[in-house]
Amino acid sequence: MTVQSRQQTDSAQSVNSIKAPCCPNCGSSSSRQIYSVDGIPAHSVLLMPDQTTATQYPRGDMRLSFCEQCGFLSNSAFNVKLNEYNPDYEETQHFSARFNEFADELVADLVNRFGIRNKRVLEIGCGKAEFLWRLCEAGNNEGIGVDPSVRPERLSTESRQKLQLIPELYSEEHAQLQADVILCRHTLEHIQPTREFLDIIRRSIGDRSNVQVCFELPDVRIVLEETRFWDVYYEHCSYFSAGSLARLFRAASFEIVDLWRDYDDQYLLLMARPVPQPTVASLEIEDDLSELSALAAAFEVNSQTQITHWRDTIRQFHHEGRQPVLWGAGSKCVAFLTTAGLEHEVEVVVDINPHKQGKFLPATGHPVISPAQLKEYAPGVVVVMNSIYLNEVQQQLDQLGISAELIGT
Ligand SMILES: [Zn+2]
Question: Most buried in the list 120, 136, 373, 377, measured by CB within 10 Å?
Answer without folding.
Answer: 136
